[in-house]
Specification:
Shape: globular
Number of domains: 1
Strand content: 15-25%
Structural class: alpha/beta
Number of strands: 9
CATH class: Alpha Beta
CATH superfamily: UDP-galactose 4-epimerase, domain 1
Number of helices: 6
Strand order of the largest sheet: 7-4-9
Oligomer: single chain
Length: 183
């Protein structure tokens, strides 16, 4: 609804705008200086890392009966640094007087929950203890972005968004922030 209101405001008042739709932001600053922290942590990547390193007892895996290759849902993950770069491009365009409209930001490639857990195990060097449970109501089997419009318009390509980079930067942040905080 907000996107419709912004589009109407553009027509009526010349408002320049951008609505950037993220698909599962993840990772942390590659230099390890900035990351995310939620208490309690509910996002899959940091929760899987916490389970692998023993900060949490286990990871709840919601649904193993999806019509996907490994039975778990598939999502498109994009690194926060790639999102930041996309924001800079959008802001520069707005400052130049261009309106962007609505654009998806993602990689166009999905990863299953089991693939995320395997990446977390590789990063930590320990398996992710899991408790399989029922699907959450409303979770679709697959959500993958089509960011082709933003890529075409800006020449933007995600640089940090392969799954292992996302997970390893999140692991570096978790080690530097949460694990050091516990000491």
């Amino acid at each position: 609804m907000v996107e419709r209101i912004l589009a109407d405001a553009e027509i009526a008042h010349g408002l320049r705008w951008a609505a950037l739709r993220y698909f599962n932001a993840g990772g942390a600053d590659p230099d390890g200086g900035i990351g995310e922290c939620h208490e309690p942590e509910i996002h899959l990547i940091p929760a899987a890392l916490e389970a692998a390193c023993g900060v949490r007892e286990k990871l709840e895996l919601f649904g193993t009966d999806y019509p996907t290759p490994d039975g778990t849902c598939i999502r498109d993950y994009i690194h926060v640094t790639d999102l930041a770069e996309a924001h800079v491009l959008a802001i520069e365009a707005l400052l130049e007087g261009r309106s962007i409209g609505t654009r998806n930001l993602g990689t166009g490639k999905g990863h299953s929950n089991r693939e995320v857990m395997a990446a977390a195990a590789r990063a930590v060097g320990q398996p992710v203890p899991v408790q399989e449970t029922d699907r959450r109501p409303g979770d679709p089997p697959e959500l993958v972005a089509d960011a082709s419009a933003f890529r075409r318009e800006f020449g933007w390509e995600p640089r940090y968004s392969d799954l292992d980079t996302i997970v390893s930067t999140a692991w570096s942040w978790l080690q530097s922030w949460k694990l050091n905080k516990a000491k």
